[in-house]
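Hello,

Our lab assistant flagged a job as stuck in the queue for most of the afternoon. It eventually completed. Since we weren't sure the result was trustworthy after the delay, we are filing this so someone can double-check. Below is the sequence as submitted and the structure that was eventually returned. Let us know if re-running is recommended.
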Amino acid sequence: MAVVFQSSMRRNLFMASVISFAFDVAIIFVVAKSVFDEPNPFTLAITVAVAAHLAVMLYTLYSVLKRWLWFFMFEREDRIKTILVEFERLKMPAPESQYADAEEYLTQAALNDDIPARSRLAAGTLLGYLGGSKLFDRMLAAIVLEAAIKRYLPHRYGTE
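-- returned structure --
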């Protein structure tokens, strides 16, 4: 079921991109035909639309790279330390010797009846955040949580 939903999302994204591009070409075509009295307005419209879309893609790539660089240079360690402090405060359980990812650890913590309800609620809240956040934010949060879980030493904080 998830594969069908995922492919449907991809199909919708592709169709939205095609329709958006066609609409941009149509607008540029009308402007080129009426304002500039261009002899071949369709070629101009395609060229301008492609250039505009490439500029948007390059700017988006620049923004993403800038955000990643900022995150890894200045934010990652602070976020990991904050998560570790919260794990200590909430007396989160020790991670299993083998776990798949941060979501699995949080799911096990949320379902663990042996830890305080406050800790289980925090684990469930983090799971909700991971599930509901945008892809980019979810990736950054998962990177931080993975690193924090690997560093988390419950015996250091007085829990077993």
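-- support follow-up --
The delay was a queue issue, not a problem with the job. The result is valid. The two ends are 39 Å apart (CA to CA). Residues 1-5 have pLDDT under 50 and may be disordered.
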